[in-house]
Design goal:
eight-stranded mixed beta sheet
């Protein structure tokens, strides 16, 4: 009986260990980040993804591009706002996929990874990249030059069926090599589908102002290229498809028309890449969706440990203290603050939380033009101008206020994660509404 008890303890220990390591071993499920297709927030793409799911056969790509089945030509691979670069093997796999008849839809901006598309070696194009600077248009925009209204050059093209207007959200531009002597203006027109007006400008110093030394003119934002038996469509603004923008102008209709064309009206499957989005599995439950992973990394190891421990009967009781760690790139400031204050989350999680909260209050004070950086002023502003965030943030702000004056002590990392997540989401909403 004693040995059986120790065996159960060993079983529990290994289970906890695998749960802790699942963040590194499991295929990534998205945390709440920009362009996340599975989370509903202002800067995620859940509405865009739901539209695709309702009309086409959609599968998530959770692993490397090298796993793409090039023997089944005609499918559509889409990558939105990647934050991790493609390896050389992955680039080769994408080129082979397109050459075999697949369609690669790459949607990225100046902050995305994988912006250099020269590895495709398109005919007549020396090099092609997405600009490292944002594109602004001082002649054709909505509200301000960051929201560029596109001039659809290829009007009548199936990609733009029933689309008369597309509004962008801090786009970048497609940049062709200036040293490309073999490329003619006619060739560019054949590739480019939508661009800015002649009032476009690349904001090289990213100061939001029009500099005298910054490139100006017409810049392409959407283009289509032929390669082998397939196509590559490049869109230099994922912001077109975020939840805050999808229902503006004809953005949603553009998504439908684009994928109707790419899938031949739904006859080809869509593979949606989430393996390069910096997505981190928030907890071990993410593993449950993947049967082979569960068997290889959970069931089989636990079965081996259980049998070995039962036969040996020599495992001693040990108390295992899990290191408390806040994960996810939303909480990178927590790591930095804790190191700077020489504290740990387990001992003093309130200290870094308060540093984060004070910065949050100051940002709200500056951007919302509050009378003072205090909770009461912020709650009034939220209730009046951001009612959709008032109910979500009210309790968080009240709790932080209590911690601030020493009336409460929060000891749960999970609670702190949720609080910071809500504040971060609201900061993004403020930025988007500027």
């Amino acid at each position: 009986m004693k040995h059986f008890r120790y065996t159960l303890m060993a079983f529990a220990f290994v289970l906890i260990l695998l749960i802790s390591l699942s963040n590194f071993l499991a295929p990534g499920l998205p945390s709440e980040v920009s362009y996340d297709p599975l989370t509903a927030s202002s800067l995620s793409c859940s509405e865009f993804f739901s539209t695709l799911e309702s009309r086409y056969t959609v599968k998530l790509l959770l692993t490397s591009f090298t796993t793409i089945n090039t023997s089944a030509p005609g499918s559509v691979l889409v990558s939105v706002g990647p934050t991790e670069n493609f390896s050389s093997d992955e680039k080769s796999a994408i080129v082979e996929f397109v050459n075999s008849g697949g369609t690669f839809i790459f949607i990225a901006d100046n902050d995305s990874a994988g912006r250099d598309l020269s590895y495709f070696s398109f005919t007549g194009i020396y090099s092609l990249t997405i600009s490292s600077a944002p594109l602004r248009d001082y002649a054709l925009y909505e509200k301000r030059p960051d929201f560029v209204l596109l001039d659809i050059v290829a009007a009548g093209n199936a990609i733009f069926e029933n689309v008369s207007s597309i509004i962008t959200n801090y786009p970048a531009a497609l940049v062709y090599s200036e040293d490309n002597l073999s490329m003619s203006d006619n060739n560019r027109v054949l590739n480019d589908l939508a661009w800015s007006s002649a009032g476009g400008a690349l904001d090289l110093d990213k100061d939001g102002e029009r500099g005298s030394d910054e490139p100006t003119g017409t810049f392409s934002v959407i283009a289509k290229y032929s390669k082998g038996k397939g196509y590559v469509v490049v869109i230099s603004d994922p912001g077109i498809f975020v939840n805050d923008m999808i229902d503006r102008a004809n953005n949603r209709q553009f998504a439908i028309s684009l994928f109707n064309w790419a899938t031949n009206n739904g006859s080809k499957p869509v593979v949606f890449d989430v393996s390069h989005g910096g997505f981190i599995p928030p907890n071990w439950i993410g593993v449950a969706s993947y049967g082979s992973f569960i068997f290889n990394f959970l069931v089989l190891p636990l079965a081996i440990v259980f049998v070995a421990a039962f036969l040996a009967g020599t495992i001693r009781k040990r108390r295992v203290a899990r290191k408390v760690k806040v994960i996810g790139h939303h909480f990178k400031n927590m790591d930095r603050y804790s190191k700077a204050m020489n504290t740990s989350y387990k001992k003093s999680i309130n200290d870094p939380l308060m540093v984060f909260y004070e910065e949050f209050l100051l940002r709200c004070y500056e951007q919302l033009k509050l009378k003072s950086p205090e909770e009461t002023e912020l709650l009034k502003k939220l209730k009046a101008e951001y009612p959709e965030y008032y109910s979500r943030l009210r309790r968080t702000i009240e709790l932080c206020g209590q911690v601030r004056v020493g009336a409460r002590d929060i000891r749960s990392p999970r609670t702190v994660r949720k609080m910071i997540e809500k504040m971060s989401d609201f900061e993004k909403a403020m930025e988007a509404r500027k």
